[in-house]
Amino acid sequence: MKILREMVLVLLATVYWVGFSGYQEYTSDSIPTAIAQPVNQYNAKNAGEHATWQLGQTVTVYVDPNATAETQTGVNNAIANWNNAGVVHLQRTDDVNNANIRVINGQLADPHNIVFGLTQTKQTSRQINSALITINDQAIAKYHQRDDMSEQAYTNMVCTHEMGHALGLNHTTPGTNSVMQPGTDRNIQPYDIQRVQMLYRH
Ligand SMILES: [Zn+2]
Q1: I need a surface site. Which of 19, 119, 120, 193 has the fewest CB within 10 A?
Q2: Measured in whole angstroms, how far is the alpha carbon of residue 17 from the centre of its chain?
Q3: Which protein residues have their CB within 5 A of the ion that is ligand 1?
């Protein structure tokens, strides 16, 4: 818990430094809503780069019915984007109890409410077992115009970025043309497709 608290402080400092430009994230050990309760022990912000879902597995995605229409559409966009790589099979489900990935709207533990998304995973060293994605619809609604993007396009981008984490991708290094780039203003890129293919073809 001490390490986690220190990580939060470092991330808070990062958020402060980055200010209001671009896409930011934050990590917290609090689980935002009751939907998250059946899946506990989230202990990592992102899946490790070499952890994946079981190869060949259909990964089911549940979206909280109370999530906004933009989030519902954004998750569908994220699923289509990553399935297009041909190495993972994400599929929507209405069955919360058998969902592998759950998506909710919520504010993150961020005093400025400028953090757009968070993905938490439960995993062993090599395998991801479940994930919870929180999409901060309020922050997106408030700030999407800074990047000259519609609220829907911005939500699509955030959902694709977070789903990338849920599949095991970490952030790319600065200057990379990628949806996994912190501060990105673009949806999925050819490089992202290559990365998920490399991750799942081992
Ligand atoms: Zn991220």
Answers
A1: 19
A2: 21
A3: 25
